[in-house]
Amino acid sequence: MVAFTLSTFPSHFSTTKTVIPKFPENPKTLILEKCKTTKDLNQVHANLIKTRLLHHPAAAEPLLEAAALLLPDSTIDYAFSIFRDLEHPDSSAYNIMIRGFTEAQSPAKSILLFRQMIEHLVQPDEFTFPGILKACSKLRALREGEQIHAYIVKSMGNLQCTEFVENSLVYMYASCDRLESARKVFDGMSKRSPVAWSSMFSGYVRCGHWEEVVGLFRKMMKMGIGFNEVTLISVLKACGRLSDLELGEWIYEHVVANGLKQNDSLITSLVDMYAKCGHLETARRLFDNMSTRDVVAWSAMISGYSHSNQCREALALFHDMQNANVTPSEVTMVSVLSSCAVLGALETGKWVHSYIKKKNLKLTVNLSTSLIDFYAKCGCVDIALEVFLEMPSKNAWTWTALIQGLARNGRGETALRFYNLMLRENVKPNDVTFIGVLCACNHAGLVDEGRDYLVGMSRDLGIEPKIEHYGCVVDMLGRAGLIEESYELITNMPIKPNAVIWRTLLASCRLHKHPEIAEEALKQVVRLEPAHSGDYILLSSLYASVGRLEDATRLRNEMKKLGIKKSPGWSYIELDGSVHEFMAEDNGHPESPEIYKAVENMMEQIKKAGYEPDTMQARLEAEEDADKEASVSHHSEKLAIAFGLIRTSPGATIRISKNLRICNDCHNAAKVISEVFKREIVVRDRNRFHHFKNGSCSCHDFW
DNA sequence: ATAGGGTTAG
Fold first, then answer.
1. pLDDT value, residue A660
2. Quick check: A660 and A637 in contact, CB under 8 A?
3. Which of A660, A589, A587, A590 is nearest to A629 (CA)?
4. A448, A500, A663, A695: most buried, per Cβ within 10 A?
5. 3-state secondary structure at position A614
6. Crossing angle, helix A245-257 and helix A229-242, to 10 degrees?
7. What's the pLDDT at A73?
């Protein structure tokens, strides 16, 4: 085979006076210009074969480049067929194919091809490494990446370790979570462009080392090192996660001052940052002012609402997104499902699930995990289980969501079985997993197991219990009537107890009528969090339940004197895909008069069937709100249930979610309603599910 | 040639 060089080319062709026009001065530009579609490519390809130019790199490579990199993914196989026809592909040809495969989402093929390149003794050049290292990054192929790094070091002298190669090495290590190795390459660089910094940042972002990103960026600014839009995107992500609004706003000013507002990715990052810092209005204003909003921008804004618990706004925006004809992605759906889960919006979530199936959205691990969480939080734990069992791969979050969901729905033993399965499948539990495990022990009344897990999590797995873990155990002991042990645990645990812990103890004192420890618990709670009404109410109703009515009234008066208001309870009910919200004594609903009529009717009917109002509670509440003529029969869950009764077809299940624990009177009423109206009623309160059916509740009156 | 926006449990 004769090796041509470009300079020999024109003279060679000027002698042939055939069909072929004079070989162009710049074949690359010409070929690239001609190849706009696959069809063009075919024509040029055919022409090059006919003119026997295909074996000339200067002609073949532009063709290859067009097929592998410039046209859509589908031509990568075509590109490879061209490549295989080359008799002696040189390093540039290999480089193009290696990059092509990576870009076409087949980075494994890039690695195979690189191996072939070495076997065929084609010397890689400094352009080969960025491509092949990118393939390693995509695959998180650390071993291959390290081998290539070694190869580069070994061949130093023959080939240059350029700045590009170094950047790629940093990014490769960062993608494989090897931050120390990335940092070592980074620190050894003689010149660091913004790309090097961004590569390093991307690793810290991946691993959630937000402080590192912000710290390094501040250092960068102090040293006057240049940065660009890509750098800012990483830094904004860190600002959001750290709620570092100060730096975030500085970046916003910078963006405005430097006319970078046209960069939609940057604006989306700002939207995300403001939303994560709780500035939803600013985020929304930026979002609304974008000239075009792609799926990522919509997702960022929706997740912003969902993140700050404005779930109804999240769903409303999702609705707007569909009206704007922007197709949601897997990522959008994660936030949407999370909002549905919080709201208990079963119908909407189910619709999302069927949409995912219909549109063939990819069931990523995250998305499936969200589905599991959503179904479990809506009380459909069997569907959650179904989704789980169909997943080809699961991570710790997936297992945790399932364990948690089973536990909350009263299937403690099953939850623990799945925990053991998780260990057997070598998925490492994290601290949240143990919240689920302890919660399972709690709801199943498995006190001994619960104590063991609390000790075992740090002893066997090195996960130190946090205040929340102690909270679960305190609750568990309290429920089981082991009030003294619970109290001792609080005073002896290595973490300072918070108000939540004392409040938990207080609630179990109420349940088991233990006024002495209750008084101590209230004292502690008030010291830590003075203005929380529920605490006073717990102790006062405990007094009432043991016949100490004077103490009960005294405490209520004290509370009134201190100006402590009851925190409002609300209940949600979802009907035909929209979520209705009720508060006690609520008059805000457009159908209010009708709903109150329905409540009166409902109460009358269940009284006939034997329901007796909790007079003690009614009296206390009446005293407290005498001016408002408040009534326990106007608790938010009763309004919501009554609304459900008149708005759904006979026999349909009524699903309510509420923010507080369900009160005793409503619990009694719901049992009777389920019998009288032949309805299943599912109430999700802040702690667990109550499935009311035929006059009884799945919690066995223990919550 | 190398870096970049939105994701999930208490």
1. 82
2. no
3. A587
4. A663
5. coil
6. 150
7. 56
The answer to whether A631 CB is within 7 Å of strand B is no
CA distance A154 to A132: 17
DSSP state, residue A20: S
The helix or strand, by DSSP H or E, that contains position A578, with its residue range, turns out to be strand A578-583
CB of A329 closer than 8 Å to CB of A370? no
Asked whether the beta carbons of A235 and A214 are under 8 A apart, the reply is yes
Q: If 0-12 CB within 10 Å is exposed, 13-18 middle and 19+ buried, where does residue A406 land?
A: buried
d(CA A400, CA A392): 16
**Residue pointed to by tokens 């972002």:** A205
Q: How do beta strands A681-684 and A654-658 pair? A: parallel
Indicate the DSSP class of residue A585: T
Half-sphere exposure of A429 (CA within 13 A, CB side): 31
Global pTM reads 0.82
What's the order of all strands across the beta sheet hosting A578-583?
A578-583, A570-575, A654-658, A681-684, A689-693, A696-697
What residues pair up with A571 in beta bridges, in sequence order?
A582, A658
Cα separation, A89 vs A60, in Å, equals 9
Report the distance from CA of residue A287 to the C1' of nucleotide B7 in Å, as an integer: 19
pLDDT at residue number A457: 95
| A206 and A198 Cβ atoms separated by less than 8 Å | no
Of all helices (H) and strands (E), which one includes residue A455?
A: helix A447-461
DSSP A158-196: TB---HHHHHHHHHHHHHTT-HHHHHHHHHT-SS--HHH
Residues A645/A677, Cβ–Cβ less than 8 Å: yes
* Window A290-349, strand B contacts by Cβ < 7 Å: 294-297, 299-300, 303, 306-307, 328-332, 334-335, 338, 341
The two three-digit tokens of residue A413, written as one number: 């033993």
SS3 A670: helix
Retrieve residue A604's tokens: 């009358």
Contact A403, A418 (CB under 8 A): yes
Q: Which of A228, A223, A288, A278 is nearest to A254 (CA)?
A: A228
* Ranges of chain A with pLDDT below 50: 1-22, 627-629
8 A C-beta contact, residue A238 and residue A254: no
Kindly report the CA angle at A466 between A463 and A467, in degrees rounded to 5? 165
Note the pLDDT of residue A72: 67
Does residue A199 contact residue A182 with C-beta atoms inside 8 Å? yes
- Kindly report which amino acid residue has its CA closest to the C1' atom of nucleotide B7: A331
**C-beta separation of A138 from A98 below 8 A:** no
State both tokens at A629: 């003529």
Q: Could you tell me if A445 and A479 are in contact, meaning their C-beta atoms sit under 8 angstroms apart?
A: yes
Q: Which nucleotides of B are covered by protein (CB under 7 A)?
A: 1-10
